[in-house]
Design brief:
The chain is α/β, with parallel strands linked by helices and 326 residues long. 33% of the residues lie in helices and 22% in strands. The relative contact order is 0.12. The protein binds 2'-monophosphoadenosine-5'-diphosphate (ATR).
């Protein structure tokens, strides 16, 4: 049987219906993602099958929340004893000042993409609400995490088999997502980071921040010298490739793709950007950014539940939602 969702105007198959055969009751718990815009978020499609697979009577919702109402929306979820929240554009920086406590991950990367509501036990210990539902009537706090940075390194490990320590990396982009990714690569011990960005000054600022925080990584602005050997990884963190008529994010006069062992594009829609197509033709191992989305979600779910997430269920659900191949 198929169900038509009037809100999004699309059909869900009977297989998906089966996952949600348990009815919502007064004891059902909730997680949600907040963003603006939110209509295209893949997070509910990824998390709800995972919650069903874990046998949890939880649901994962999505809400369009304006920046000037984010504080109220977080407080509302806390008052209603939500298990947790994910935050997406444009809320990740704003939320730093809107949670009660920051996990080290959020402090390190300067952004919150996951909130876990925690209950205070009689012993004074804070426990995620999802693991202490009996304590939901007591004091509750919002703890902010960042799972995006781990999502990047897990995707590189899982999809490209990369152990980052000691690698040479050509890194394209210095925007919000690029900054966290480049810093995380440095924290993981890459040996060389060559930063290239349209606005060179932003690459220079990022290079300085990396030198300050992770001095064992040799960072420079500009393309590496082809004569000095291959790079182990070329990573695109620019938005070039999202649109069909976008230019390549690299200058092929300055860098030949045959000098990259592996190419990762943070873009996942389209599944194969022109950069990835060219890289594959040049013999590079390639992966798109779907794994980042998957692994940040896996980490968030594990924070909320305290259990291992059903990664393959989430991967299949995400892929089916985005590429329609389920
Ligand atoms: P995000 O949060 O996704 O990182 P962002 O902070 O706007 O978004 O960063 C977008 C990145 O793509 C930046 O590195 C940007 O380069 P600038 O710093 O020069 O703006 C890059 N980018 C966007 N459009 C581009 C274009 N037409 N050519 C080259 N780089 C581009």
């Amino acid at each position: 049987m198929f169900v038509l969702s009037a809100e999004v105007g699309c059909f869900y198959s009977a297989r998906v219906d089966d996952l949600f055969s348990s009815p919502i009751t007064a004891s059902t718990c909730y997680c949600a993602v907040y963003g603006q815009p939110i209509r295209h978020s893949a997070s509910p499609a990824m998390h709800n099958p995972a919650l069903a697979e874990l046998g949890l009577d939880w649901r994962y919702l999505a809400f369009e929340v304006a920046s000037d109402e984010l504080g109220q929306a977080i407080a509302g979820a806390k008052a209603m004893r939500y298990i947790g929240l994910n935050l997406t554009v444009p809320h990740k920086l704003l939320a730093l000042d809107m949670v009660d406590v920051l996990d080290e991950s959020a402090e390190t990367w300067g952004a919150v993409n996951t909130i876990c509501f925690e209950a205070k036990g009689e012993d004074g210990i804070w426990t995620p609400l999802g693991q202490a539902l009996g304590q939901a009537h007591g004091e509750v706090r919002a703890k902010g995490y960042n799972t995006d940075a781990d999502g990047i390194t897990l995707a590189l490990q899982q999809d490209l088999g990369l152990d980052l320590a000691g690698l040479r990396v050509l890194f394209l982009g210095a925007g919000g997502a690029g900054r966290v990714a480049a810093l995380k690569l440095a924290k993981e011990g890459v040996a060389e980071l060559h930063l290239v960005n349209r606005t060179r000054a932003k690459a220079v600022d990022l290079a300085n921040e990396i030198r300050d925080r992770f001095p064992s990584t040799a960072v420079s602005v500009g393309y590496p010298d082809n004569a000095s050997g291959n790079v182990d990884l070329l990573l695109n963190a620019t938005s070039l490739g999202l649109k069909v008529d976008d230019a390549l994010p690299i200058d092929e006069n300055q860098f030949n793709l045959s000098h990259a062992e592996a190419v990762f594009d943070m873009i996942y829609q389209p599944a194969e950007t022109p950069l990835l197509a060219k890289a594959e033709a040049a013999g590079c191992r390639t992966a798109n950014g779907l794994g980042m989305l998957l692994w940040q979600g896996v980490k968030a779910l594990e924070i909320w539940t305290g259990q291992s997430a059903p990664v393959e269920v989430m991967r299949d659900a995400l892929s089916a939602h985005i590429y329609g191949d389920g």
